[in-house]
């Protein structure tokens, strides 16, 4: 459905993205993750036909985004980081207006608008003026305008940005509900927001693709689950005890407190605790680290900093 090859964009001398390559299959929900400035918006703008690449190729449903942008635009719905809404219109008027812009036949406009409102939970505010809506509802209107022409691909740039925790949960549910009917590419810099919604993640950092796969695949490739500990006592003794459970990494060792990570299954926590205390060491903290995406993402991006 989407093929990206060697995608590069320079702003003047600065490469915002460099040599990106990935493919996305029909019906997948993909999370595009990266810290601020990683290059997410730049990539999504190119996929959304609002920015030309410096080099490389993007093909969506067999159509090139540069030479066949008209065909591509018919197949995509794009929610930019700032939703393009006309505040003085009602929700219904605005969505009907966007439907007309996207070549939805006049006879089908009402049903398209109704369906978009249904999918995004906007039915109750159909007649409300957009300027009177909360930020969360406006964001839904932004999403509804992206899907009113029933595109096969939805490109959503940080759809949860600026929402409160409840609105984030609601937006996540809305996006999850789109699965099946649409292929979805959704960006975020806040990982827990995206990990529950997406089938697969693309992690971008400083304009390059660091890793891709499901959360489980990414965790596995990085060594799988582990146990985190804070221990006070003799370093050599602590290493000796913990090495019996798996590879040990000492992350910090100031003020006599050792922060340690043991590559071991979280269900070994009771045995690890007994061994540490039995060896005369003080156990200050013991956590399971089940390859949570947040930790994973920080490790990936931090590792990249170190290698750079
Ligand atoms: N119009 C522009 N002109 C010059 N540089 C730009 C422009 N737009 C983005 N950049 C730079 O390109 C890099 C990538 O920006 P981009 O907006 O794609 O990142 P992002 O991952 O979407 O970050 P954010 O979440 O902060 O929007 C950044 O260094 C940014 O400063």
Name a few traits of the molecule.
single chain; 308 residues; alpha/beta; Rossmann fold; Alpha-Beta Plaits; 2 domains; six-stranded mixed sheet; four-stranded antiparallel sheet; 11 helices; 14 strands; 36% helix; elongated; binds adenosine-5'-triphosphate; ABC transporter ATP-binding protein; nucleotide-binding; transport; ABC_transporter-like_ATP-bd
How are the elements arranged and paired?
Blueprint: E1 2-11, E2 14-24, E3 29-33, H1 40-47, E4 55-60, E5 63-64, H2 69-75, E6 76-79, H3 91-101, H4 106-119, H5 135-147, E7 153-156, H6 165-178, E8 183-188, H7 191-195, E9 200-205, E10 208-213, H8 215-221, E11 226-232, H9 235-242, E12 248-252, E13 257-262, H10 269-278, E14 282-289, H11 293-307
Parallel strand pairs: 3-8, 3-9, 6-7, 7-8
Antiparallel strand pairs: 1-2, 1-4, 4-5, 9-10, 11-13, 11-14, 12-13
Helix pairs in contact: 3-4, 4-5
The structure holds adenosine-5'-triphosphate (ATP).
Adenosine-5'-triphosphate (ATP) binds at residues 11, 14, 16, 34, 36-42, 81, 189.
Family: Belongs to the ABC transporter superfamily.
Protein name: ABC transporter ATP-binding protein
Domain ABC transporter: 2-231
How would you portray this structure in words?
The protein is of the alpha/beta class and 308 residues long. It folds into two domains: 2-220, P-loop containing nucleotide triphosphate hydrolases (Rossmann fold, 3-Layer(aba) Sandwich), CATH 3.40.50; 225-290, Alpha-Beta Plaits. Helices cover 36% and strands 28% of the residues. It has helices spanning 40-47, 69-75, 91-101, 106-119, 135-147, 165-178, 191-195, 215-221, 235-242, 269-278, 293-307, and strands at residues 2-11, 14-24, 29-33, 55-60, 63-64, 76-79, 153-156, 183-188, 200-205, 208-213, 226-232, 248-252, 257-262, 282-289. The strands form three sheets. A six-stranded mixed sheet has the order 6-7-8-3-9-10, with helices on both faces. Strands 2-1-4-5 form a four-stranded antiparallel sheet, covered by helices on one side. A four-stranded antiparallel sheet has the order 12-13-11-14, with helices on one face. Helix 3 (91-101) crosses helix 4 and helix 4 (106-119) packs across helix 5. The longest helix has 15 residues, at 293-307. It is elongated, with a radius of gyration of 24 Å. The two termini are 33 Å apart. The model has no long low-confidence stretch (mean pLDDT 89). The chain binds adenosine-5'-triphosphate. Adenosine-5'-triphosphate (ATP) is lined by residues 11, 14, 16, 34, 36-42, 81, 189. Pfam families: ABC_tran (PF00005). GO terms for molecular function: ATP binding; ATP hydrolysis activity. Belongs to the ABC transporter superfamily. This is ABC transporter ATP-binding protein.
């Amino acid at each position: 459905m989407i093929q990206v090859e060697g995608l590069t964009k320079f702003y003047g001398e600065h490469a915002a993205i460099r040599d990106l390559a990935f493919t996305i299959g029909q019906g997948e929900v993909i999370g595009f993750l990266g810290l601020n400035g990683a290059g997410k918006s730049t990539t999504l703008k190119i996929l959304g036909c609002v920015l030309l690449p410096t080099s490389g190729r993007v093909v969506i449903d067999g159509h090139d985004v540069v030479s066949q942008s008209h065909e591509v635009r018919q197949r995509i719905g794009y929610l930019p980081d700032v939703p393009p809404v006309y505040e003085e219109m009602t929700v219904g008027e605005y969505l009907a207006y966007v439907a007309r812009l996207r070549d939805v036949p006049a006879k089908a406009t009402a049903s398209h608008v109704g369906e978009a409102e249904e999918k995004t939970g906007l039915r109750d505010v159909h007649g409300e003026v957009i300027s009177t809506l909360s930020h969360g509802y406006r964001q839904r209107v932004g999403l509804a305008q992206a899907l009113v022409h029933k595109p096969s691909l939805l490109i959503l740039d940080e759809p949860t940005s600026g929402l409160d925790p409840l609105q984030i949960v609601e937006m996540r549910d809305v996006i999850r509900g789109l699965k099946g009917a649409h292929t979805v590419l959704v960006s975020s810099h806040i990982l827990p927001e995206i990990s529950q919604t997406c089938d697969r993640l693309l992690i971008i950092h400083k304009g390059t693709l660091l890793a891709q796969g499901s959360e489980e695949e990414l965790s596995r490739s990085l060594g799988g689950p582990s146990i985190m500990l804070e221990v006070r006592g003799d370093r050599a003794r602590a290493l000796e005890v913990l090495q019996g459970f798996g590879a040990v990494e000492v992350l910090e060792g100031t003020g006599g407190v050792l922060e340690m990570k043991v590559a071991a299954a979280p269900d070994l926590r009771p045995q690890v605790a007994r061994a540490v205390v039995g060896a005369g060491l003080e156990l200050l903290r013991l956590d399971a680290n089940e390859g949570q995406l947040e930790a994973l993402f920080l490790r990936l991006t931090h590792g990249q900093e170190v290698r750079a």
